[in-house]
Amino acid sequence: xxxxxxxxxxxxxxxxxxxxxxxxxxxxxxxxxxxxxxxxxxxxxxxxxxxxxxxxxxxxxxxxxxxxxxxxxxxxxxxxxxxxxxxxxxxxxxxxxxxxxxxxxxxxxxxxxxxxxxxxxxxxxxxxxxxxxxxxxxxxxxxxxxxxxxxxxxxxxxxxxxxxxxxxxxxxxxxxxxx
Length: 179
Prior knowledge:
The structure is a single chain. By secondary structure, the chain is of the alpha+beta class. The chain has a single domain, classed as 7,8-Dihydro-6-hydroxymethylpterin-pyrophosphokinase HPPK (Alpha-Beta Plaits), CATH 3.30.70. Helix content is 27%, strand content 21%. The chain has helices at residues 17-30, 68-81, 131-140, 153-157, 160-164, and strands spanning 2-8, 34-38, 41-44, 55-63, 96-102, 168-172. Strands 1, 2, 3, 4, 5 and 6 form a six-stranded antiparallel beta sheet that branches.
C-alpha cells in the first residue's frame, strides 16, 4: 500500500484548489498509478503564515510497481504540471504531493537505510504530526499503522501537537464528475 498526501491552497493552471486535487488524482492515474481510494476533502489551517488561504487536503491510497524514487519523480512532475514553482517552506502552493507511506518502507529516517542518497525519506518525516494527513488516512486506510511508531492514525491524533498542526476546519466530498 502506498499513501500520498495531496494539498492545495491557491489556484493552479487546473483551477481552484479543489479542482486541482481532483485533477491531480486523474494525472496520477495517467502515469499508470492505480488510485484505489481517495479520502474526503479536508479544509485545514495553513502552517507557517496563517494569513494565507486555508488548504484543501486529502490522502490517496495507490497501487504502483514503481520504486519510491520513481514515484517521487512522478509526483514532482505532476506538481510542476499544475504550475508549482520552487518557493519557501510552507509557502502557498497550487499543489503539494507527498509520499506518506510507501509499502511500509523505512528509508533515510535516522540513517540512510535505503543504501543511496536519493532524497527519499519514508515514511514522511512529519506525517505523524499533521492532522491534515492523519485524519484523511482514516478514510482510506483505517487499519494503517505508522511504520516507525507502530501507531494508528487515531492514536497519533491523540498527540496535542498533531491535532493543532494543520487543524481541520471543514470536511467535504470530492466533486463528482458529470456523467
